[in-house]
Amino acid sequence: MAQDRQASCDVVYLVLSHTQPAQVERLVDRLLANNTSAHVVVHHDYARSWLDLAAFNPRHVDVLRHTRAIRWGTYDQLLAILRSLEWIEAHLDYRWVVFISGQDYPLRPPVEIQELLLASGVDAFVEKPRHVHYRFRDDEGGRDFWSARYFYAYYPLPKLARTLPARWAKALRNAEVLLRSHQPFVFFWMLPRDENTMIGFRRARHPFGDDFTCYVGSDSFTYSRACVRTVLDFARRRPDVLRYYRRTIHPSESFFNSIVKSTPSLRVHEDNFRFDRFPDPGTGHPDILRLGDLETLLRSRKHFARKFDVTVDEEILNALDREIDAAVATRSRP
User: Fold this and answer.
1) Distance between CA atoms of 276 and 198, rounded to whole angstroms?
2) DSSP secondary structure code for residue 282 in this structure
3) Strands (DSSP E) along 84-136, which ranges?
4) What are the residues facing 143 on neighbouring strands?
5) How far apart are CA 12 and CA 114, in angstroms?
6) CB neighbours of 83 closer than 8 A, spacing ≥ 6?
7) Domain count across the chain
8) Residues 193, 221: one domain?
9) What's this model's pTM, rounded to 2 decimal places?
10) What is the CATH number of the domain that holds 270?
11) What residues make up the domain containing 179?
């Protein structure tokens, strides 16, 4: 379901989803409730679950499926975001794009979030990015894993660890850790979601320099239209950079942040107003939020939070709905 007309709105919510279709429908309903100045664009991975188009009002929602099955944490994810931004720019008349996942949920009334964006006077809200250096060791003398993400070219290995006996698989893992810790030329990376182990070779050349610096941060962003156009223009002008990111790890977390932070004309606020909580700094999977987290979420003053899962705890979303509805009612009183 994709429209040809130019719908006009203040804010487009770009939702990247792959699971829990009923939860995605609920998220879309919440984004549009009591809200006439928003449009929702859902990019759904139909290889993982089925999203029923009949659940949405085509005047206010578009569902895209312009990429094949997405291997999360890879170049596929970057392309899904980039092509969605291209579609929005070509088909919608908008002022802001808010990028979230299908397992995000608003903590405040979306119309209130939109008012804050329109009055902000900036071009982008992003998590404060980290400058990534071309080096082997970090400042504490340990292996620089950020550098390993973006200054190596990665290729998938056969899934040997899943076919070897447990003792041999453990020995192989130990050898990988030992090898990547003691030399800068080869690196092994295990992708999430049961993907292949990747082998990376340190690059002799890269596209980064004084006018384009490597950064990494969350790819949950909020961009003005000027910022979206800057990103799309860069992607058109620098296909070499896109090709470079094809063989990096989690490229979407660096590609967009590097463009935005390397463009001095953009006014960037280094807080994306998202709440998430990771049980371990090294894991790529945030905690599933539950009803017991409600007060923490409300005190955070963030705009959105993740990760929610209705099969684990639906009451947290019910409680957030009650809080948002109460805030909307308060706003409507004379």
Assistant:
1) 27
2) T
3) 92-93, 96-101, 104-106, 124-125, 130-131
4) 137
5) 10
6) 64, 66, 67
7) 2
8) no
9) 0.93
10) 3.90.550.10
11) 152-202
Indicate the DSSP class of residue 204. S
224: three-class secondary structure by DSSP: strand
| 183 and 72 in a common domain | no
- 264 and 159 in a single domain? The answer is no
* 207 domain residue, yes or no: no
What are the tokens at 274? Answer: 């998202």
Q: What is the pLDDT along the chain (334 residues), one digit of tens a residue?
A: 555 556 799 999 999 999 999 999 999 999 999 999 999 999 999 989 999 999 999 999 999 987 778 888 889 999 999 999 999 999 999 999 999 999 999 999 999 999 999 999 999 999 999 999 999 999 999 999 999 999 999 999 887 655 678 888 788 778 888 888 899 999 988 776 556 788 999 999 999 999 999 999 999 999 999 999 999 999 999 999 999 999 999 999 999 999 999 999 999 999 999 999 998 765 668 999 999 999 999 999 999 999 999 999 999 999 999 999 999 998 877 7
Report the C-alpha gap between 332 and 334 in whole angstroms.
Answer: 6
DSSP state of 143: B
Whether residues 120 and 261 fall in one domain: yes
Beta bridge partners of 15: 42, 100
User: Any idea how long the chain is?
Assistant: 334
Q: Is the peptide bond before 307 cis (omega within 30 degrees of 0)?
A: yes
Asked if residue 26 lies in contact with residue 54, where contact means CB atoms within 8 angstroms, the answer is no
